[in-house]
């Protein structure tokens, strides 16, 4: 988004914390979107500074991104590893059956600790659907989460939403995302076309 040069690492999609995304900068590994953003702001502040919005507006964008990072993400994780079919998962990850079983147990344990794993599947869908409707209402008719220009939080928001569109086949949110929340779909395509024109 900022023109900062980078190189993709396809060998290790999960860093030392077992999380993605993660980056390595001159031998230093940083995991988790929020820590990565703070690190990049510190190192490349002049490049990443986007002065289109005031502090109050940016706080709204941060709140949206935080909600998505801490709760909305669990809709995707639960659907991919616990509630969805093996066939759907195999469209995203070529994972042996034993690894799928282990991943399901680990994810369910983490989801129960987080809280969402204690709910019935239909309640999880209801919770996550409300999150998606909330983001849709905040986005409204704007090009980006705050207006005509992107802010740094658009990266994380897009990162979460893109999973629902391109990384979660046959998910229970498709009708909502292509209907009432179709502005989120338009937002995702706009972000993809503008910043990742070579997306495959």
From TrEMBL:
<dbReference type="InterPro" id="IPR040079">
    <property type="entry name" value="Glutathione_S-Trfase"/>
</dbReference>
<dbReference type="Pfam" id="PF17171">
    <property type="entry name" value="GST_C_6"/>
</dbReference>
<dbReference type="InterPro" id="IPR050931">
    <property type="entry name" value="Mito_Protein_Transport_Metaxin"/>
</dbReference>
<dbReference type="InterPro" id="IPR033468">
    <property type="entry name" value="Metaxin_GST"/>
</dbReference>
<dbReference type="GO" id="GO:0005737">
    <property type="term" value="C:cytoplasm"/>
</dbReference>
<feature type="domain" description="Thioredoxin-like fold">
    <location>
        <begin position="1"/>
        <end position="82"/>
    </location>
</feature>
<protein>
    <recommendedName>
        <fullName>Glutathione S-transferase</fullName>
    </recommendedName>
</protein>
<dbReference type="Pfam" id="PF17172">
    <property type="entry name" value="GST_N_4"/>
</dbReference>
<dbReference type="InterPro" id="IPR012336">
    <property type="entry name" value="Thioredoxin-like_fold"/>
</dbReference>
<feature type="domain" description="Metaxin glutathione S-transferase">
    <location>
        <begin position="129"/>
        <end position="191"/>
    </location>
</feature>
């Amino acid at each position: 988004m900022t023109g900062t040069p980078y190189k993709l690492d396809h060998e290790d999609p999960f860093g030392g914390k077992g999380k993605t995304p993660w980056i390595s900068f001159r031998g230093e590994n940083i995991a988790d979107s929020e820590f990565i953003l703070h690190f990049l702001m510190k190192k490349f502040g002049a490049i990443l500074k986007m002065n289109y919005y005031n502090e109050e507006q940016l706080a709204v964008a941060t709140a949206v991104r935080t909600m998505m990072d801490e709760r909305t993400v669990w809709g995707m994780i639960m659907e991919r590893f616990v509630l969805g079919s093996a066939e759907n998962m195999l469209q995203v990850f070529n994972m042996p059956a034993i690894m799928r079983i282990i991943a399901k147990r680990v994810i369910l344990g983490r989801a129960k600790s987080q809280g969402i794993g204690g709910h019935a599947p239909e309640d999880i869908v209801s919770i996550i659907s409300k999150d998606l409707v909330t983001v849709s209402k905040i986005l409204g008719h704007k090009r980006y989460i705050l207006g005509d220009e992107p802010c740094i939080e658009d990266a994380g928001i897009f990162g979460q939403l893109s999973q629902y569109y391109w990384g979660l086949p046959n998910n229970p949110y498709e009708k909502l995302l292509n209907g009432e929340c179709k502005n989120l779909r338009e937002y995702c395509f706009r972000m993809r076309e503008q910043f990742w024109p070579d997306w495959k």
